[in-house]
Write a structure and sequence with these properties.
Rossmann fold, single chain, Rossmann-like_a/b/a_fold, alpha/beta, EC 1.8.4.8, about 200 residues, oxidoreductase
């Protein structure tokens, strides 16, 4: 078999698995949500999910530290894909220089600007399933994650793109003529390939 055939089979398999994961989650949930941060490749997952379930609720935690480019990209994708967007912001937060990773204040800062707004979003929308776009190659923590998991609070979390490669992401984006966003600044991460807290079990995040 030609190598091109193998590449095509792997791509189609990854697409089918992702769609099946989305469909399976939707079939057993009443209030599913999608999370996004409108980073460079966010349009890919938002497009994929919207093809399966138009109008699904999308949560965006706007930390207050996003650039104008990210804000513009969020507006563009929301309009283009007709996204049912729900934006949540930190409560009573003053913009400051984000604490360094070794600063004792960093954990509290992360909870204030990202984790608490996300938890509030889930409660407000009464979500019972969370569709996330994480991939294994993004961090050490994500390498060992299952595609389906029940979090400590009973939330079903599904990661349909978990086994997608960077090449799969690029091909899907190009085939569907989706734009790339600007680099997204996350004040809670401090460095690449580090978890921000949302993708750790929220009982300890």
């Amino acid at each position: 078999m030609a190598s091109d055939d193998t590449v095509e089979l792997n791509y189609r398999h990854q697409l089918a698995v992702a769609r099946h994961a989305i469909q399976s989650t939707l079939a057993i949930s009443c209030k599913p949500i999608v999370s996004t941060k409108f980073s460079e490749e966010s349009a890919i997952f938002l497009h994929l999910v919207s093809q399966v379930q138009p109008g699904i609720a999308v949560i965006w935690v706007d930390t207050g530290y996003n650039t104008r480019a990210t804000q513009s990209f969020a507006s563009e994708i929301t309009e283009r894909l007709d996204i049912n967007l729900h934006t949540f912001e930190p409560l009573d937060h003053t913009i400051i220089m984000p604490p360094a990773l070794d600063d004792p204040e960093h954990a509290a800062f992360s909870r204030e600007v990202k984790v608490e707004p996300f938890q509030r979003a889930l409660k407000t929308l009464r979500a019972d399933a969370w569709l996330s776009s994480i991939r294994r190659y993004q961090s050490t923590h994500r390498k060992s994650q299952p595609m389906f998991q029940t979090l400590s609070d009973g939330m079903l979390k599904t990661s349909p793109l978990l086994d997608w490669t960077a090449e799969t992401m690029t091909r899907y984006r190009l085939e569907n003529q989706l734009p790339l966003g600007a680099p997204c600044f996350d004040p809670t991460k401090g460095e690449a390939f580090r978890e921000c807290g949302l993708h750790l079990d929220r009982s300890t995040a």
